[in-house]
Amino acid sequence: MSRSLRDVYGDSLLKYGKENKNVFALDADVSGSTKSAVFGKECPDRFLNVGIAEANMVGMAAGLATTGKIPFVNTFAVFLTSIGLIGARSLSSYSKLNVKYMGAYGGVSDAFDGPSHHSLEDIAIMRTLPNFQVFVASDEYQTDWLVKNAIDVNAPMYIRLSRDATKTVYTPDTKFETGKGKVIRDGKDATIIACGVMVGQAVEAAEALAKKGIDVRVVDMFCIKPIDRELILESAAKTGAIVTAEEHSIIGGLGGAVAEVLTSGGAKAVQEFIGLQDQHAECGPYNALLQKYGLDVSSIAAAVEKAISKK
User: Fold this and answer.
1) How do 23-27 and 47-49 pair as beta strands?
2) Given 34, 103, 144, 260, which residue has the most CB atoms within 10 angstroms?
3) Cα–Cα distance measured from residue 266 to residue 302, given in angstroms and rounded to the nearest whole number
4) Any idea where the domains of the chain sit in the sequence?
5) Segment 97-108, tens digit of pLDDT
């Protein structure tokens, strides 16, 4: 397992933020949780704790962006994409302002704070906003790249982070590109297209299925928007069976984005959806929640076998 993604984020924001004096960090009174406090401690003149005022935070960030600054706004994903949404839509999306929306504790990773803190709609919401790029961090090395890329690229972005560690699937030398998914493992019988913590789960599911003679391709679709249409259609043509796996509602997120590509591209492939089944999630130990809502390795493997049986 890697380090927790929030710890990696805090360290990366400090590392790259110290190099670029235009980087600012804003937080809504949860900087100890989001780890933006790491940057704030070293660069207090470029750190603003606005209190529990997410909408105001987004407005302040937009103002900073108009002066050439690169503001990173930080809070739990569920509040950033709900209370902060009007600013994201009107200021960043419509006005194309260079604000980075860092959605901490994505999915059910804020495990014990209950339905009010789970973020199961954020990807669906943010990918509908014109001019936004949308990413979901899968491991520590990718998280580090996402922070650097956010500083280097002049565009509004939503980046979803998990509270916890994830399975390491990359190396420090791995190259990433906006709009291009990564093939983690190749295969011919089915394709799992996953994002975030589910990428590691998908790799384990593919390894388990290999012992049964089932050859599965695993794709990390860490960039939800712009999405890699070419890779999705290639995977559909090669394997004829797609399973999307996300720590998110099956409505409107990665699964919906992939389905749009398959349909508009005329692909002849079966699709199964792993995600929350149009429901809220309760609180409890994180791994227990993943299992309860069918986001575990065995559920992914079962979905792959189901998809193959429908071909």
Assistant:
1) parallel
2) 103
3) 26
4) 5-160, 182-310
5) 999 999 999 999
